[in-house]
Model the fold of this input.
Amino acid sequence: MSAAGSSGGFRLSVRLAEAFRDDGGAAVLAWTEPVATLGELRSLLEARLPSLRGADASVAWAVNGAMVLHGVAETPLSDGDDVELLLAFAGG
Amino acid sequence: MGIRERVASLRGRLAKGPQFPTQGETLFIDLERQEVQGGYIPQAVIERLLGGRGVNMFLLYNLLDEADDALSPEVPLIFGSGLLTSYLPSAARGNVSSRSPESRAFMDANAGDFFPSFMKWNDIDHLVLYGRPAGLSLVRIKDRAVSFEDADELAGLDNIDLRARVSADCGVEGGDFAMASITMAGERGVLTSGIMAGPKAIYARGGPGAKMGSLSCKAVIIEGKTSERKTRSPYKVGNRSIAQKLLRTSVVKNALKTRGTPFLYKPSRLISAMGTKNNTETTWSEELDAENLDPYRPGMAGCMACPVNCRPLNDMGDPEDKYGAGDGPEYVTLGKFGPNIGIKDVRQVLRFNNICNDLGLDTSSTGSAIAWALELIEEGVIEQPWPELPLGWGRAEAIEKLLFMTARREGFGAVIADSTRAVERGHYPAAALERLMAVKGLAQSDPHDARIIKAFALGLAVATRGMDHLRNRVTLEINARINDDPEFKRALYGGEVSAEANSYVGKERAVRRCENVFAVGDAVGMCRFTTQLFNSPSLPDLGDFSRQIKAVTGLELSEEGLDRAGQTIMGVERLINARLGLGRRDDTLPKRWFDEAIQTGPYRGERIDRGEFEALLSRFYEISDLDGDGLPKPAWRAELESMLAGALA
Done:
C-alpha cells in the first residue's frame, strides 16, 4: 500500500506491529508521501489506521533501528528511512 | 531468645480471630517438633502493610535474629498471600520471605500460579516455617488440618517428576491441590535455586530453594478449598470493571495475551540497551525477537483465574525429549540465556528455559552467575574449568552440562551454585568482583542494560531486595507519547520528571511513585504485569484496589493511604536491611556502569556519572523520608518501630 498523494523520489519503509495492522493489513507499508518529521508521519498514519488512532499510550516508534524515546514530533525523517511502529513495553 | 520464644512473643500480640470476613490465619509451623500454632495479624498492621509482602516483612522483622545465618533453622521461611489474592482478576500472587542465603539483603520473592490462591481458599494468609526435622519432610494441609510426612522417597526429584508424583496422589494441580516445592538444587543448598509453585512459576530471587532446603522441607501441599468466601459486600461488579480495564489495555491485549513478555526483547534491542555477554556489549541478534518464538508456541497459559494468560508455552516437536516442550520463556530467561551468555538460537533458549524450570533454578541468578564466569574465563581471571568441553560465550552444550552440575553442586557447578558469593567462598579472586553485575549481592534480575535510562538505573540501585527491576521499574520511560506530554507525566509521578530518558532530572519522583504502587500491588496479591505504571498508565491502580479492599474486607483505605502503605513497606524493608548491615553504600550500581560507556547505538558514550548518581540518590532519599544512609528518618523510624512492636492501636 502506498500513501495517497505520493510524489516521486521519497520513500519510507514503515513496519507495523501486529496490533496496528488493521483488517489483516500488510506488515510493511511503502510510504511515498514526503514527510519531514516523525510527527507528520504519525498524524497521517493516525488518519489511516483506526488501531493507531484509538491506541492508548503504549505506542513506540523506532527510526532506522533505534527507538525514539522522546521528541517524536521533531524527529527528522529522510528518504529511505526505516520506521517501525511497535508497542512500548519495558517491563516483564 | 530463639525462634520459638520469638514466635511465642509475637503470638501474644496477635488477634485470636479474624477481624474482617476474608482475613486468613497466620500459621506458625515448627517443622522439627511438628507443632502448629496460629493467630491473626492485628488490623492496625493490615491497615499499614496490607498483606502478602507487606505483612511478611512485619513477621520477618519480629522473628529474625540477624546473628543467625540465613540457612539456620532459627530463621523462618514465610509464605504470604495478598490481601486480595484470589478475589480479584489477575490477583493470584503471593510472596515468600526470609533472610537471603544468596544476597546480603533480606529475601523476598513473588510467584503466582496456584499456591497463593489455595492458601487464601483455605483461609490462610501466612505460613511461617522454622525448625529442621531429622529427615526430609513434607507439610500437607487438608481440611484445615496440618500434617507432617516423611519425604525421603521424594528426595532428589526435580520439578517435572515431583509434580507428576504428587499429582498421581492428589489430583489436578490448580484444581485439587497446589504445591510449593523444591528440587534437588534446593535440597543441596544451591543459592540460585527457587521454590517451584507450578511447572514454571517460581519464587525465584535470593535463594528461596536453598532456604527451604535448609529446613529439610521438600514441599508444602494444600489440598482442596474450604473457604466460605464471605466478603464484606458484593465485589464482583468491581471485578468486572477491573477485568475490562486490564483487558482493553494495548500491552495486555496485543502483547501479554499473544506472546507474553518475550515482547520486551525487541525494545531493549532497539534502544541498544541489551545486557549482552555480562553487559560487556549492549546489542544482540534479531533472531530472539518475540515473533521468532511463534513457531514453537502451541498456546498461552496463566495463573489461577487470571484473564490475561500471559505465559507462552513452548513445544519444539520432539516428544522424546524431556526438555523439548515446556512453559515459558519469560523475557528475563530469554535475555539471561540468550544475549547474556552469547546464545542466538531460539530453540536453545527454549531448551535452557525448560531445563531451568525442571531443575528449579532462578534464571536471573543462574544466567548471571554463568555470564560472570564466562567473562572471567575469557579474561583469564579464572582458568577454563573444562578444557575438553570449553565453557565460553554461546557454547550451548557446555552450558547445558553446567546447569545440571549446578543443580547437583558438582565440580564447577558448585561454583555457579554459590552465585554472587563465589569470591567470598574462595572460588574466584577478589578482582572478579569488578565484573559482577549485582547490587547488595543479588545479580541483576533482567537483561536490560540501564546505563541509558537513568530511572531504571536508580531503581536497580535502591531496590530493597537487590538488583531487581520488578520492585520499581519506571517502564514508561520508554514511552515517547508520555515523555512528550509533560503535564501528563507530571501528574503521573507527582512532579516534574525529565522527558529525556538519559537525564537524571526528576527521576527520583518516578522511582518513588513506582516503588509505592508496586509494593501495594504485591501486598494485595495483584500481578505486576497488570498493575498501573508497569507498561501502562491505564492498568488497575490504587483507586481500584481501594474500592475492592473496601468491598471485600470492609477496610477503608484511601488511595493516599495505600500509597503511604507502599512507602511503609519500603521503610520496614530498609529497617530489616539495616539490621543486616546494609546502608547507603549498598544502594549503588555495578562498577562497569560507572566506568565503562555504551559502545554502540544512539546513546553511545552513555554511562552512569558518579556525581550525578549520588545527587539523584540523595534526592530519592529526601523525597522518601530517608536519612543520608537510606534509613527512615527518626520520626518516621519511631513510628515504624512502634507499629512493628505492636504499640499502635
User: Anything to note?
Assistant: The interface with chain B takes residues 17-19, 55-62, 65-73, 84, 86-92 of chain A (CB under 8 Å).
